[in-house]
Write the structure tokens for this entry.
Amino acid sequence: MIDTHTHVTSCRDDSAEVLARARAAGVTRVITIGSSLAEMPTAAALARDHADVFTTAGIHPHAADTWSPATEAVVRHHATLPRCVAIGETGLDWFRMHAPREAQVRAFRGQLELARDLSLPAVIHCRDADDDCFAILRDEAPATVVLHCFAATRHLDEAIERGWYCSFAGNLTYPSATTLQDAARRVPDHLVLAETDAPYLAPVPHRGRPNEPAYVMHTLLYLASLRGCDPNELATQIDENARVAFNLR
Ligand SMILES: [Zn+2]
């Protein structure tokens, strides 16, 4: 089972311990996100040192005001390292608004262009900004799009139609998440992914405590129960989807 979106280097405990616990739980691969000027080099180093770790390169919407030609050059450098499998996470976050709207849009467009240019998938962070996110993606998305911590339930049909991957995080397991759970039942087998987004959004029964990649197994079990399928088969399906989406070797 793969954790397709995690921030190992932002977890409280030492990365080697976090990875060891993930392996013990049955997590065979992780994609650790590099989405700031600080996180990209630490994530890249982890991927270089561990055969089961891949990484990404990008600037999170929270840090979008750091986007500049110099930053783009740094992202491009990290994106072309051998263990980097995607651009991102990038997108729009109108909920937290840590960066001004115009800065978020500029950084998002710039990274989609980079993803197209480098033929890499784009990992999308979209929070309270579904309409604006989809409007930009419609015209500017690269060939492969992963909707990380999927929540754009009103746009599910369009996401499916366009063949965009829907990656479910620990918030799927929260009792109030009924709309999201309905969406998770409807995503076709070939577009479903699962992730932790650790250290955030720990699934039940770890809700409210720091998350880590090992806990993707809880989200997997929950997703399998929603979809009425065998967890092992779903894990195999998600692994295969991740292999195709991120061109993992
Ligand atoms: Zn993330």
Observations:
- The chain has one domain: 2-245.
